[in-house]
Amino acid sequence: MSEILQKARRAKLVSRRVALLNSAVKNRALKTMARCLRENTAAILKANALDIKKAKKDRLAPALMDRLSLTAGRIKDMAVSLQDLAGLADPNNQILAKIKRPNGLDIEKISVPMGVIAVIYEARPNVTADAAGLCFKAGSAVILRGGSDAARSNKAIAAVLRESLRAERLPADIIQLVETAGRQTAAELMTLRQYIDLLVPRGGAGLIRRTVEESLVPVIETGTGNCHVYVDKYADLKKALAITINAKTQRPSVCNAAESLLVHKDAASRFLPAALPALRNAGVAIHGCAATRKYASYVLKASAEDYAREYLALEISIKVVKSIDEAIEHIHRYGTRHTEAIVTENRRNARRFLSEVDASAVLVNASTRFTDGGEFGFGCEIGISTQKLHARGPLGLKELMSYKYLVRGNGQIRQ
Amino acid sequence: MSEILQKARRAKLVSRRVALLNSAVKNRALKTMARCLRENTAAILKANALDIKKAKKDRLAPALMDRLSLTAGRIKDMAVSLQDLAGLADPNNQILAKIKRPNGLDIEKISVPMGVIAVIYEARPNVTADAAGLCFKAGSAVILRGGSDAARSNKAIAAVLRESLRAERLPADIIQLVETAGRQTAAELMTLRQYIDLLVPRGGAGLIRRTVEESLVPVIETGTGNCHVYVDKYADLKKALAITINAKTQRPSVCNAAESLLVHKDAASRFLPAALPALRNAGVAIHGCAATRKYASYVLKASAEDYAREYLALEISIKVVKSIDEAIEHIHRYGTRHTEAIVTENRRNARRFLSEVDASAVLVNASTRFTDGGEFGFGCEIGISTQKLHARGPLGLKELMSYKYLVRGNGQIRQ
């Protein structure tokens, strides 16, 4: 039997037990995990150093290298996240609805755990602790399949988490890490519909696409964000500038960063002469339409590909549009249904944008960077869903739950 | 361009319009559809007669023939369903949650339509009207792909529905029927993730399996029900008998009918001598374990396959179990997470069964036949989901919705 199949079967088995754990037991275990991570900082850093040594030899890209690198501070952050999880409300066993039927049947809709959640991710070892903690608090067993670059770090972190579970007299198999290297392990996970209830891919567009295409297990697609800021004719241009700069430059590598700026033609002559140098000063490469390029010589020519692209870097595409309709059409064509923002003081345009733009989050007069579990008050998240099924936007604890109906009768039969 | 691709693109286009229709407009259109169906009864019956003639020539199975056959009464039922839909609350644009953030951001989580829903179904032409009506009321465009046996009936019904939309000055393409025959049309639908937001297969286990395996479009798996009735040691045996007979025989061809009976050993000697002849008198073929077979000579020997089987007919498997634990284990092993019932007067056992049995609906002292959109008070349903993602149990209007976050600020940027 393969490692994957073995681990998936064990996960299914323990998932029944973790689903029934009460909040106090789960929270105590989360605190123990946090403490043990701190206590094992040296061992984790040692494992991480080996990963980094190998990554240097393999000439890993600097951005990946940064994601891979752990420090005592980053390990402490993981511990704090686990401790914070312990403080959040238990999402399990919540009454979502009550229905009383004329025939006397009492129906309760209650939240229940997914069962077994598999998370496929890339070079970031902190996902090992974050995803494990979230799934555990949500009452599910978890199978973690991290990238091979972080293999040793992930193994060290998972070992600490599993040891913490054992110390709390809980089955270590509630948290399992795939150790066999190679693409086929992810492919095998995707086939095990009878053992795995949900698959969450966390990573680049390639991983997401492959998961969606290959998986028989239900998937929540996360993370592709070609987000727009639309500066309306009626925008407060001071707000527009602050939002544009923040959305593009505050953290360009993440999915809720803005990739494209749309400017109403009547605002362009007032807005672009300020916005273009501000973007340039922030180190942003600018691709613009002909109307944009009139305002600055350093604006490169934007192609359709630029409008479709998720740069994830200090790079932006800009288009001057004739109307809010053209802005909405452009977003409909190029957007990825992640996050879209309008800057306007006009209520009617705000309302139109909110109702007509199809995205997980639509914002008025705020930076796209706010689409985030922490910023929404969820306390945590495992990713941002860009699909419409099950959950949209930040995936917090509630979004990792399923539900069932409890029906109580006194002998009712159907007529 | 293929018929499917053309229709999927048109559906995506009109989906934006139908999502914004107000309730009054949708309800009026539903009533017009109902009226037009009634007025076109003769034409629909004529088309149906051609399907039936062909089905007879093709020697279609009697059960399928029955599903295929329309009468004036069945057409009236379709019309009544559409009219009833007009009376239900609009599931769109409902505020699901409000979040006020310390930074002043106002977040609203509101229900929004899925967009484009594709429904793949088999020989029942009434699904054409039911599914179209449900998706329309839920604010989505729909692509219907019915079985080839019902091609002419479906075409006649869809034509009436589309004509009704036109009469209400709405785009007929809100409701589209696939007319090209052959399996490849379903296969093509399953690839169009960029145009179709949700795929609901309605039909036999083969169709469901194929859809789950092949579809790139998110699927809600419906309809496989290996449902159990467990008669506990502490059961009221009068209730147990009524529930067993009702769950098995009231409508054996549907997914919420019971397929298996589990009896606690301490109840067996009191319950089975009454239950076995009652089942036999109702025409039910019985497959039992050794302990069951002691009570009647006509009980056939049950194999593991019998316990796994969804008979969808007057046939049942029976097992005497040592304890509620064995009952729960058996259900875990053979159940399909659809509907499971316990008959007991013992509160602790009821509670254990409700919390430990993993199914869309778990019932105490009531027939499994109650897992149904109508019986739950939803007013309608498009199927019963047996997966944990998105929706579980009866899929009514609410379950066909997605959501989005509306975020209102006054210039907030992220720190």
Give an account of the 3D structure:
The structure is a homodimer. Chain A has about 425 residues and is of the alpha/beta class. Chain A has two domains: about 5-220 and about 390-405, Aldehyde Dehydrogenase, Chain A, domain 1 (3-Layer(aba) Sandwich), CATH 3.40.605; about 225-370, Aldehyde Dehydrogenase, Chain A, domain 2 (3-Layer(aba) Sandwich). Chain A is about 45% helix and about 20% strand. In chain A, a hairpin with a 5-residue loop joins strand 1 (about 95-100) and strand 2 (about 105-115). In chain A, helix 2 packs antiparallel against helix 5 (about 70-85). Chain A starts with a helix and ends with a strand. The mean pLDDT of chain A is about 95. Chains A and B meet through helix 10, helix 15, strand 13 and strand 16 of A and helix 10, helix 15, strand 13 and strand 16 of B. Strand 13 (about 360-365) of chain A pairs parallel with strand 16 (about 400-410) of chain B.
Per DSSP, the total helix count of chain A is 15
| Total of domains of chain A | 2
In terms of quaternary structure, what is this?
A: homodimer
Give the integer mean of the pLDDT values of chain A: 95
| Helix proportion of chain A | 40-55%
**Largest interface summary:** A-B, 68 and 68 residues
Low-confidence stretches of chain A: none
Largest sheet features of chain A: 7 strands, parallel
Distance between the amino and carboxyl termini of chain A: 49 Å
Please tell me the CATH architecture of the largest domain in chain A by its name: 3-Layer(aba) Sandwich
CATH topology of the largest domain in chain A: Aldehyde Dehydrogenase, Chain A, domain 1
User: What is the CATH superfamily label of the largest domain in chain A?
Assistant: Aldehyde Dehydrogenase, Chain A, domain 1
Q: Overall 3D geometry of chain A? A: globular
**In total, how many beta strands of chain A?**
16
CATH class of the largest domain in chain A: Alpha Beta
- Percent of sequence in beta strands of chain A: 15-25%
Structural class designation of chain A:
alpha/beta
